[in-house]
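Replying to the earlier thread about multi-chain prediction with a worked example.

Input:
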Amino acid sequence: MNQQRLGLLFMAPVALFLLVGFVSPIVIVGWYSLMEPRSFELTTVFTLANYRTAFTEGYEAPFFWSLGGAAVTTLTCLLLAWPTARILHALAGRGAAVITALIAAPIFISESVRLFGMSLFLMPGGGILAGTLRTLFDVNIGSVLNTKLGVYLGLVYVHFPFVLFPVLLGVALIPPDRIDAARDLGASRWQVLREIELPLALPGLVIGGLLAFVLCIGANAEAAILGGQTVTVLTRAIEQRFSYAQDWPMGAALTILVIAMTAVFVFPALARLDLNRLIRR
Amino acid sequence: MTASRLLHQMARSNPLRSGPNRRHVLGGLAASVAASAALPRMGHAQDDGLALLTWDAYADPRLLDMWREKTGVAPRYEIHISDPTSVNRLRAGETAVWDFVNLNNPWAREILWPEGLIYDLPRDRFEPLYAQMFEKFAMPYDWALSKDGNNLLGVVQRFETFDFVVNSDVISPELAKNEGWDLFNNPDFAGRYGILAYEDWNVMDICMGAGIHPFKPKSDADFTKFEETARRWIDNAKLITTDFVQLNLAMLNGEIDLYFTGGTYTASSARAEGATNIYAITPSSGPADGKGGINWIELNSAVANPARKEAAFDFLEWITTPDAAEIIARGNGNLQPVSQMAQDEVLSRFSTEELDAIQWDEFDERISNAVEFDIVPDYDRLYDIYSAAIRDRG
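Result:
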């Protein structure tokens, strides 16, 4: 058996799994999106009515909040992750593992549990933050819970670790001697950052950014638990169509649009990644 | 009305449910896939014990343990994602999977029985159980019977009114009952109330607030009034959530003074913990034939699965025994009235504090001020108005 046939043979189980588990559901969802609104059957009578509705019946707000929230959260996480990763990298072997573990540990706890914990922290009146500030400093703060700020804080809190670790990987890709050489040649701190560090750490930044962005587009719990549904995010709008509205075709059309929009952002970013370089091959 | 049209309308009329979320939806999809994969194997699974498709109270571990001790086999169960989802699963062939189904009142007579998805019960065996319930359920009790009145379709157990909840330290219960849904129309309470996003119930409540009978056909003027009320109520809400604990906490914390939709189901556990200022209200009057409250009733039925038909009948009879009924009334940590509380032997098992938690002293009054849950005509259009208002919020 030649190498190529052997390769195909080894690939077959994974290919079959992806076909059944990944491609087929998307095909079914795409098919449903072309059915009459509020129908339950897959037929060959197609319509674009659901897509028209998506652009005419006020769904731009959920798109705005999900995409805008994802962009702002990703940016914030990247801004926070960069200095954190630099510090952790510099501290390697001197406590970095403990800090890393502290940041990573919450990932192993259910997202809902973490967000409910945060809601107790942010709760006005008897909440941990408000109560502590009032008791210790006689300071009364307004409510952060059930506001857009609450949603933003929740998104950053949940997604920060997903950005930090790829960025840490990116920072590790920067050879220290390049920075030294740049400084010896008179580069300013800004020039070192812009010309040396960011380009070399780009794979980590892109992966971290993509992870946060894609996860944020699908995020629902933050708006529900910390935001009091002060905004309706896309996943919530989709869920409404599938559940209370029993309008599977409309839910499917929104789902396909989300997939398409995510692809618009993800594929160009992925094209910039050189995985071989990332794993030092 | 065609069967599919009726299903379509009922599909939006699912009463009490835990709030839907991504996990539930994904879990449901996964369960559906698993259940479909299991279908061919069901013939070999007859010794697995009863399979319950149910709301949470019937999945209480104490109840399941008692049945296991009695029969030697523990029931399997799955908690509904929603009434219509489960009905659709039975319609899709899962009658071969499940033996017992616990759904709200309209489903059995409108869909399950006409489509042959449940068995009728032997009347000589089960009708006497109705004689041990409250007078409200005396035979012939329409929701438990087929439309022609010839077939008994299930056993009634959990029931209550589900309207709104106030902080009685801020709003007196008497005032709340008298004002009814107009409390949410009062500009003084803008930003002082929450919404429990059981959205089909929200639609019914907004109908009430707009002065429209939720269970009767709507005119164009009704739709206009509904939209105006829906947008105002949604925009003025301090928070909207699928978690009633969050709403109770917000009320205790002083963030809000009242919320809809709510009732014993959402208030009783907090009241049992001592927060007796969390008070379920059923309005004294309203636009539904003069009534302002809505009363849901669960009907337990035997799924048309020949594999365990007799065992399902046994289970249906057994859940009405005092020991089982008591556990169901306390199911999953909530206190919830059951029809067997008409019997002193069952009622006496609840302490004064527990009865206070379910506001037992005024339970009859609440039931008498409520219309029975039913299909909402024109639900599609009403829900689209409601969900558009939700999307526009913020």
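The first strand of chain B starts at residue 51 and ends at 54.

Feel free to reuse this layout for your own posts.
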